[in-house]
Amino acid sequence: MFQPPVPVVIPETAGKEIYQGLSGFGSRDDNGCPAFCINHDFIETLKKDDCMDARNTPAPDLNPPFWKTTPLNRMTPEQWEALCDGCGRCCLEKLKNPTTGKVYYTSVACPLLNPVTCQCTDYDRRHQQMPDCLTLTPETVVRFRWLPKTCAYRLIAEGKDLPGWHPLISGDRRSVHRAGISVRGKAVSGAHVHPDDLSRHVIDRKLIDRG
Ligand code: SF4
Ligand code: SF4
User: What is the pLDDT of residues 69-110, one digit of tens each?
Assistant: First the structure.
């Protein structure tokens, strides 16, 4: 469930201004929504039902803490899916410098990502819809070094524990939004950005790794 990096040359100084803007959202309400949300009009007209669903869906009870006792390659499909924190960070469009290999995140989300719920809107058919969407496996987790440092799969693969805001710890899917980890209110849908303009939306990597 990942947007792979697109090869393109990005100057090292790119993204500083955008990062400053994104980090200035300020306080959040009880539902984890930022005081200023760039998708607000979009939510009101098209996504309000999805938004409310995301706020009220409880996290699954999967006899925790399975992630402490079961290696990634032994997890059931249900456990594997439950491990995802729902941050949506991995579904942001990325650019890659073909010379240095450095990956740059942008504030533009895959067109299939609901920027409010931070969920894929067609997860079961995502590979038909988005052929570039990569599949995360126990093997690729360790190869995809561009994954956010907060990604639950990466944390477990590195022998680390899940943070307190992870829905499996908090028991509430909203905690990933309340903690400011998800891309809710920070990403614009790729449906509204031309691929040639992606380099104008590069953000500082620190924003993606921030826990
Ligand atoms: S197709 Fe779905 S899972 Fe894949 S990058 Fe896009 S939103 Fe994420
Ligand atoms: S936990 Fe990892 S796979 Fe799940 S949405 Fe976050 S970055 Fe993506």
Answer: 999 999 999 999 999 999 999 999 999 999 999 999 999 999
* Atom number, ligand 2, closest to the C-alpha of residue 136: 3
Tell which atom from ligand 1 comes closest to the C-alpha of 130: 1
Tens digits of per-residue pLDDT, 24-55? Answer: 233 444 544 444 444 444 443 334 444 444 44
Tell me the ligand closest to 108's alpha carbon. 1
Q: Which residues neighbour 181 within 8 Å (Cβ) at sequence distance 6 or greater?
A: 85, 87, 89, 150, 165, 210, 211
Nearest ligand to the C-alpha of residue 208?
2
Question: Is the separation of the CB atoms in 148 and 209 below 8 Å?
Answer: yes
Mean pLDDT calculated for residue range 145-165? 97
pTM over cut 0.85:
no
| Cis check: omega of the bond before 65, within 30 degrees of 0 | yes
Residues with CB under 6 A from ligand 2: 1, 84-90, 136, 148, 151-153
CA 101 / ligand 1 centre spacing (Å): 22
* Domain range annotation of the chain: 5-209
